[in-house]
Amino acid sequence: MSPPPTDAFQKRKTCLDIYSRCVNSQQALEDILDAHFPYCREWHQELKTLFATYAKAKMEQICLDYDDLLLYCYHMAQVPQIAQQIRDQFDYILVDEYQDTNVLQAGILMGFFPTGKGLTVVGDDAQSIYSFRAANVDNILTFPEQFSPPARVISLTQNYRSHQSILDLSNALLSEGSEGYKVALFSERKSGAKPKLVTVEDDSKQAEYIVETLLAAREQGVELKKQAILFRASHHSDRLELELTRRNIPYVKHGGLKFLEAAHVKDLLSILRWADNPKHKISAFRILKLLPGVGPKIADKVINMLTEKQYVFSELLDFPVPALAKTLFLELIKVVSAIGNNQIGWSDQVNQVINVYKTLLEINYDDHFVRFGDIEQLAQISQQFSSRERFLTELTLDPPQSTGDLSGPPLIDDDFLILSTVHSAKGQEWNNVYVLNVADGNFPNEYAAGDKRSLEEERRLLNVAITRAKNELHLIHPMKYWVPEQQRHGDQHVYGAKSRFLTEGIMQLLETTQFPRRELNEKEKKVATAAITDIKKTVLGIWNE
Fold it and tell me: What is the pTM of this model?
């Protein structure tokens, strides 16, 4: 093996992302690194070894991750006898959101139902904006050709949300793309304000334009909560949020930590998983390190002893842990042992775990009083399930979306503005929509610039933003982007190029304006005319050469 690179090895999350994409796309590690993680190429051999060790550890601990659920199901679907048993249970199969499926999911469907009899998939290729688990828009684009005769395509063309001017913009944007079904949408609402492309000087003027416009709309009867600010990345709204706070305008920003990503939720579930499966080393390691005075080495010794004792928890009661941890360790082992042996009924298992974990929560987290709200919620959720196994399975496959946090100051006004990333806005609608930073580098994202398929996904993302609007659409294009980390009065900036999606045909469907509006004085007109003349001479000179 070649000597390891000198740079630090990649983070766990990056390694898991690489592994997940390999599994779900069924592509070789080399191809995944080249296409999506080029900065990890030098770690190719180490990653290969890591993934093999990870797969082996899962087999030894008798556990599956989410990728495995798809992978194992995919291979089951390729076994004729199993596929036939599954097929015999159903007369009709309906799959929703098919545009967001990956290679494995499509393979599962085709394996179980190869003739397509009774099979219907529903989706919109124009809304394929997630690369989550290597989702592949080709699944829906090539679906008809997977069968003989080809599957029937039923296009739904009437839109009940936006008026025709907004739909004309959407139709034109998608028609200029290189892939898709090219479905032209229509609306019975033929009249409506033409979508606006607003040019502003910078981020500050962008915030000023939005605030003035949305307040004016509110005065005309459009509530704040019927208006939304959409952006490509969460940090794009930073300057606007400052202005909203300064103007005392209430708002809600969509997004936040997913429930199962919260450390305290992972802790509690790890206790239950360890009790359910004593071989689950990851859960054991996580929980043991929460005990005072217990580090990785002691945790490893506990796990190794449990293995030697044939995974009988009661054999750990005499293990010599540090004095600080002794009482909590004994309580923990007694609870997981009782749960694992079903000496405690399911209805009381989570409460017993919470009684032990509450002290660990207080020891390990400063904001334990806030986090405990999620723990209480978890206890309530658990009572909806008939068993521990069902609870752990369903919570993993279909978790709550967000976790608790300290609440901000209460809003006296029951009306509030919506701020959201475009990805989070999918499926939503508002009367008036403002899209921030419609410039190259944001729409499309700079990381998509060199890849044709990524550019098409960015096109679809902009289309999703456009079609959230019912009545008014404002696309905002700042001319300057200030360079961060400079002195307070620094003037370093870069200019934002017009989005490549705003072609000549698209521009004809937009009402172009600038903010703030003002006429040039005579001196400015002379300077502008001279600048244009110089540019023409330069261009003609290059052309003649």
Answer: 0.71
